[in-house]
Batch of 2 targets.
Target 1
Amino acid sequence: MTGYAPSEAARRSGFSLDTLRYYEKIGLLSGVGRTSAGRRVFSDDDLGWLTLFRCLRDTGMPIAEMCRYAELARAGDHTTGERRELLVRHAERVEEQTRLLQRQYDHLREKIRFYDALG
């Protein structure tokens, strides 16, 4: 098992050290190992979770839903349907937001073209 110091886990995940501590505190990230001196050591599995959390956070999933997903995953394979449904609902919200952003982007480009035409 490869172990990563908190600073390396933060660098690899793009989260701050404070965020990593917060995610542990609220139970989003659980089971982070410790050295004999009590220092946290993040595993490849932990980094995998952090990659997923980065995706979910960056796409606007509320922390409560992220916690629910993690809770379901830890509960075992019998929760795969519920986990899938949670992700499907989130993907639908992301798709809706993407369409909105595309419309707003198109409007901005139209406005820029207007100003370009003015010279």
Target 2
Amino acid sequence: MPETLGESAPDAAIAARRARMATLARAPRERLEAAIASLAPTPQWERLRGPEAGMVMVRGRMGSVGGAFNLGEMTVARCAVRLDDGRVGHAYRAGRDLRAAELAAVLDACALGPGLPASLAAALAAMDAAEDAARDDRSRRAAATRVDFYGMVRMG
């Protein structure tokens, strides 16, 4: 992630990790397993917390500017792991897939090293690209069902 003007190095590192964790939180389990398998040597880890599933309260705002309100609850899986070299990774994922939460935490820890392994960087880029393609496809399909109410009013 490129550093913007006025953004310090720690802020850039935090923003990069935030983006990486978001990618790992949304990636399918199969892609996470493939990313772990691509690392050489395969990382060894111990569980610090979880993996476990629980509920979190989702909050919303009317019109993005109104007062906050409780929208409802959703299920979340979380995990924290420590690699053999001491790096600690965390993951929170929507749903109940505990194995995916554990794998995402391991990949988060692996990315905290002095240099991002090339295979992990490629896997993260592929996850981002797949997510962008899926988002574009959903947007295209939704746009195809759009109705122009202004035109309907003028015709009536």
